[in-house]
TrEMBL record:
Keywords of the record: Membrane, Transmembrane, Transmembrane helix
Protein name: PepSY domain-containing protein
Matches recorded under Pfam families: PepSY_TM
Residue ranges crossing the lipid bilayer per the database entry: 12-33, 155-176, 207-227, 352-373
Source organism phylogeny: Bacteria, Pseudomonadati, Bacteroidota, Sphingobacteriia, Sphingobacteriales
Amino acid sequence: MFKTVILWLHKWLGIITGFVVFILSLTGSIYTFQDELKLWAYPEKYFISDTTNHSKTPLPLSTLLYSAQKSLKKNQKITRVDLYPSKNRTWVFRAIKTDEKAFGHWNYYRYYKRVFINPYTGQVQQVENSKTEFFQLVLQLHLNLLLGKQYGHPIVAWSTAIFVLILLSGIVLWWPKKWKGKNLKRSFWLDTKVKWKRLNHDLHNVIGFYSLFIGLIFAITGLAFAFPDFKKTYIATFNLLQSPTASSTRSSPIPLPAVEKKFQDNALRYALTNYPDAEMMSIRLKKETETAMDIQVRHHEKRSGVFDWLYYNKEDSSLTAVKSSNELQYGDKLGALNYDIHTGGIGGLTTKIIACLASLFCASLPITGYIIWMNKSKKKKKKGYQHNVNKYC
């Protein structure tokens, strides 16, 4: 009786969310390698072709920001800068504005532009309309099904939550009646000599078993993106396992060297000088009236969870605090690593390959599940038809 109820729940939850799970899994497998694929697909954007005549240091941020802003329309304002200290890389200036209540991807983004600039010459290499860029479309399909945040996000969020229940109910259905003989072997391995219907059924069970653990990781880390309160709860829970560390806020601010005329130029120069091994830095530009400026220093370009945050004060042109990911409590560190865990970047190329394959496994589950459902439906109809024939003959 228990397994009958679980089977009914598993079936109907899968039927309701199967299409969404398929899309999320397929787009997730593609997006796993988006950092590597972008560099391969768009070398003219991300790489500087000729570095022979470049100076040793990049131009001031304000100069580059002026060049980037000049390449856009007047109403398109740059809000973020992603820079790469490597001598052969361009810097990326983002201008983005969204309408949270709009329906559809093309209405959700009022505009989204990326300006790629040679930081040593100030030359704009290319302006990308990120609204139609392939990997951005893949990401938005993954996040919102291209329906816009207000409409697509809840569907994705609750489908992810239901996917957790599907995986957990699946392990109950998978559990062998006897842990020996043919039934046990069929639970872990495929017999290709059986008929197609049996093979499809076994494929669903076996792939479901092997993708269970990573599938749950995908789903739970996805829930952290989908439901902010859920993320706050698990961060707070894991923080209880460790006593708070000493604050990194400095008792006395460090004055910035006045090398450049503008505060933001000196702030970035300080970051580049004191973090020479950083692979990436990110700046969220604030309003000119604000006195604070923050720079995120990433020690690995393809990992967002290993960082130092530098906090500056414009009024006295000083560095006031440094927040390192190494000093975070367990919960905060887990929250910071959520993106790296979700995308498979936590352990480099090896975990990315595992994540990509696991995503493809998860994408196959709705397909094999639907086939099982359709085969059983046809079987029931055939039995019903045969029963009526026998009744009236």
